[in-house]
Amino acid sequence: MQSSPLLLEEPIRMASILEPSKTNFFPAMTKIVGTLGPKSRSTDVISQCLEAGMSVARFDFSWGNPEYHQETLENLKAAIKSTKKLCAIMLDTVGPELQVVNKTEHPISLQADTLVVLTPDQNKEATSNLLPLNFSGLSKAVKKGDTIFIGQYLFTGSETTSVWLEVSEVNGDDVTCVIKNSATLAGSLYTLHVSQIHIDLPTLADKDKEVISTWGIQNNIDFLSLSYTRHAEDVRHAREFLSKLGDLKQTQIFAKIENTEGLTHFDEILQEADGIILSRGNLGIDLPPEKVFLFQKAAIHKCNMAGKPAVVTRVVDTMTDNLRPTRAEATDVANIVLDGSDAIVLGAETLRGLYPVETISIVGKICAEAEKVYNQDLYFKKAVKHVGEPMTHLESIASSAVRAAIKVKASVIICFTSSGRAARLIAKYRPTMPVLSVVIPQVKTNQLRWTFTGAFEARQSLIVRGLFPMLADPRHPAESKSATNESILKVALDHGKACGIIKPHDRVVVCQKVGDSSVVKIIELED
Fold it and tell me: Which Gene Ontology molecular-function terms are recorded (predicted)?
């Protein structure tokens, strides 16, 4: 069984599968990103989402205005305060997204085997045989025989609100298509996806730049989800833009891979980005169905080896309207964890779904069960082999800390860090126990006022598998001149005990800097 991503003790007692799952303070090591929207924006529901295991809140600017999202964010802040649970903020850009403009918002019925014209003239009204778009270059991008998909924004695939079209004629700016299946377009926002075609629009649109430089700055966003990333240059351009916006130079950029163009340039994009989001909804349209799993496994593996977070979307679509996921969805979530993903994004399920809290809870439980049988030993060997020799100083310390923790069956790894890099490196080796990342704030001054760093670094670890941050008192330095920094270690241990992850007689592995040296030590706790 050692070469399998699954670690099952032989012979496995089938009856043990029926034993109830143990509840932990941390629902799962795999993180959950929840998209906040109409069904999940009240303080009460957000509080329940945080308690259920959401650690990153995603604000999707494909719909809703900044005032609407600001109101939701204020409710999130109140929920964080009342639950005392940290939560990071992710701003998701619109990017070069093609949308059907239906000003009246009346349902549009489309009949199979009839014709429909796609036009860039947004002044025209949407009807059963005419659909205005927000893009004028479609006629130049497509040719006869190309496939076009139109679906409700964050379509779940189970609606009768998605339609496949085949281009039959290009006439000036207009594109005439044959409708392949009958459907009714009902709802406010419909997106259009053309299979394997380059759309000549900027990845960071002017509207996105405006939102980032106003709403983004105002709210110190932790992550920027860069929709439709197609080249490494897209990430470089976004980073250059953020670098001019004060504190946002610390914002991490997650490249969202949504089409074959992004897939083709994946390696260069991974090198530039801070993390990757595999947008399986759009990718599932661009790729043949039998290739989707292959891309998922290859992409997650590359992210793991690079030590960058891999985030997967579109997991329990049917929970938008149902209280339980399908068998296939439950298995899919587990496989994402076994593949090595850091986090899972919930889109329609929490945005407009009927059961946002239950969805987060169920996905967390599935993740926790999958983590129990994750073959860490096999993964560790692969990661060490990939890094090669000689290892860097930090990489060596991180891998040693994880190896030591597993050998002594430690209940937790405590890592002191100021930038968060050491803790992320430890998490890269996928320890089977939680990593408590104690972020030590650093004092900075511009000669006019003092500021502390650390909050960004703490929140940004909320998307990394197995990493659980706590902000330390800034009066305690991250680097200690003596072999132990007793006061801050005691605070971390007390926090672990309060969370229920540290018990009497447990062993704890501590990773910290002492002077110019990095030290890994094992502590055995007393009563």
Answer: ATP binding; kinase activity; magnesium ion binding; potassium ion binding; pyruvate kinase activity
3-state secondary structure 325-349: CCHHHHHHHHHHHHHCCCEEEECHH
Q: What is the DSSP letter of 296?
A: H
Q: What share of the chain is helix, strand, coil (3-state, %, to 5)?
A: 40, 25, 40
Structure tokens at 172: 């000036």
Chain position carrying tokens 């002077």: 515
| 310 pLDDT more than 70 | yes
Q: Would you say 168 and 78 are in contact if contact means Cβ atoms under 8 Å apart?
A: no
Instruction: State the number of CA atoms in the 13 A half-sphere of 382 facing the CB.
Output: 18
Q: Which residues pair with 468 in a beta bridge?
A: 436
Question: Quick one: pLDDT at residue 307?
Answer: 95
Quick one: tokens of 385? 């082999």
Here the tokens at position 247 are: 């504190």
| Model confidence at 135: pLDDT above 60 | yes
The structure tokens listed for 450 are 């003092």
Lowest mean pLDDT among 158-167, 216-225, 360-369: 158-167
Supply φ then ψ for residue 14, to 5 degrees.
Answer: -60, -30
> Residue 229 is encoded by which pair of tokens?
């990333």
Strand, helix or coil for residue 393: helix
Distance between CA atoms of 199 and 98, rounded to whole angstroms? 9
| Strand, helix or coil for residue 178 | strand
pLDDT given for residue 101 in this prediction: 86
Crossing angle of helices 292-306 and 327-339, in 10° steps, is 30
Indicate whether 80 pLDDT > 80. Answer: yes
**C-alpha to C-alpha distance for 345 and 301, rounded to whole angstroms:** 18
Helix residue spans in 287-375 (DSSP H): 292-306, 327-339, 348-351, 356-372
463: pLDDT strictly greater than 50: yes
* Cα separation, 91 vs 418, whole angstroms: 24
Residues near 441 by beta carbon (within 8 Å), at least 6 away in sequence:
418, 452, 453, 454, 455, 471, 472, 474
Residue 159, C-beta contacts closer than 8 angstroms, at least 6 positions apart: 151, 152
